[in-house]
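ARCHIVE CARD
CATEGORY: sequence design from structure
SOURCE FIELD: tokenized fold
FIELD CONTENT:
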């Protein structure tokens, strides 16, 4: 089994802590290890480091080496720049085709997720082997415990075998009433963005559903063959469609399976999401510094200063050396809009 970890994101919803020179996956969000290190460590009971591959943007290669010094250099797959998950995974498949057998199993994981129950996670990878060997593209559906509007959903169909279901369809992020309906129906799961498939199966799916990507990948493989793995791929890669793997492949494929799982998963996609998995005091506050509060509940604060909160609830307050973010938990996903505005205003010192 091969692990492919996608570690090229920018983590804009974690501004101001996440920056271009150190995005979310390289931050120590929980404990003393970075999210990338936690993701790799989680695999140790099933996949040795020599069989772990990291795909990342060229600008982040040195960060990967810094955080994973024991990782073989040839196990870093370099995107010229970030595009989306279909080009990212396609590039990785092209790289792996010359290194692993065509029928090798590949688990694809984002670098910046939290999973509390590692044993259950590893068991789900073993469980995915059977449907993958039967030609299914397998994904992992998180059993929802509240009507989330920040996640896409997977609607499950008939059973394939015990604990493995057919995918009926993928649904984009719903509004609250729709999400409540999904939970009542009982066969909807959060889309985790984690996948499991055989190399030859997913390559054929690209050939069928994204033939334009395959043409570009063939150009890339030709370039690697004649110029080496450090060849400049910019002129080819920029022609890739900015397509997510869900839309480009998973929504179109015929044989799709979902394994419902419940192992304390979070994509930690916002400050609220991080607050939700962080221990709190009796008033529901998580304040990571010396503090004194009056009538303040449900707040999440990151600061090195003494903090006092008076009469405020459900805020996220994040302080760095050069920036201060204050948002309600309910609007924390909109932090990305701040980054967009900073980009538009060319305020590079804050990005």
């Amino acid at each position: 089994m091969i692990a492919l970890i996608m570690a090229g994101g920018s983590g804009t919803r974690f501004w101001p802590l996440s920056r271009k020179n150190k995005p979310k996956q390289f931050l120590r969000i929980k404990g003393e290890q970075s999210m990338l290190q936690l993701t790799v460590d989680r695999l140790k009971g099933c996949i040795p480091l020599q069989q772990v591959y990291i795909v990342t943007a060229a600008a982040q290669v040195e960060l990967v080496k810094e955080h994973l010094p024991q990782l073989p250099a040839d196990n870093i797959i370099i995107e010229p720049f970030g595009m989306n998950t279909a080009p990212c995974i396609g590039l990785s498949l092209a790289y792996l085709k010359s290194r692993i057998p065509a029928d090798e199993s590949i688990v694809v994981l984002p670098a910046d997720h939290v999973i509390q129950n590692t044993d259950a996670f590893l068991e789900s990878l073993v469980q995915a082997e059977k449907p993958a060997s039967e030609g299914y593209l397998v994904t992992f559906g998180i059993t929802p415990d509240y009507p989330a509007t920040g996640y896409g959903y997977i609607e499950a169909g008939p059973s394939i075998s015990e604990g493995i279901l057919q995918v009926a369809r993928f649904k984009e992020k719903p509004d609250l009433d729709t999400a409540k309906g999904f939970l009542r129906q009982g066969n909807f799961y959060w889309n985790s963005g984690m996948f499991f498939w055989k190399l030859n199966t997913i390559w054929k799916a690209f050939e069928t559903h994204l033939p334009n990507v395959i043409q570009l990948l063939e150009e890339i493989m030709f370039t690697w063959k004649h110029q080496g793995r450090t060849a400049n791929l910019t002129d080819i890669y920029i022609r890739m469609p900015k397509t997510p793997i869900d839309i480009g492949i998973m929504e179109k494929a015929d044989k799709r399976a979902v394994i419902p799982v419940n192992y304390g998963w979070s994509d930690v996609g916002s400050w609220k999401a991080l607050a939700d998995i962080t221990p709190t005091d009796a008033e529901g506050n998580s304040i990571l510094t010396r503090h004194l509060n009056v009538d303040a509940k449900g707040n999440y604060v990151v600061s090195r200063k003494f903090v006092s909160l008076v009469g405020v609830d459900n805020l996220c307050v994040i302080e760095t050396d050069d920036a201060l973010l204050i948002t309600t938990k309910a609007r924390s996903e909109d932090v990305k809009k701040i980054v967009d505005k900073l980009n538009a205003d060319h305020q590079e010192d804050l990005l």
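CARD ANNOTATION: The mean pLDDT is 92. Residues 271-350 form one domain.
SHELF: design records, drawer C
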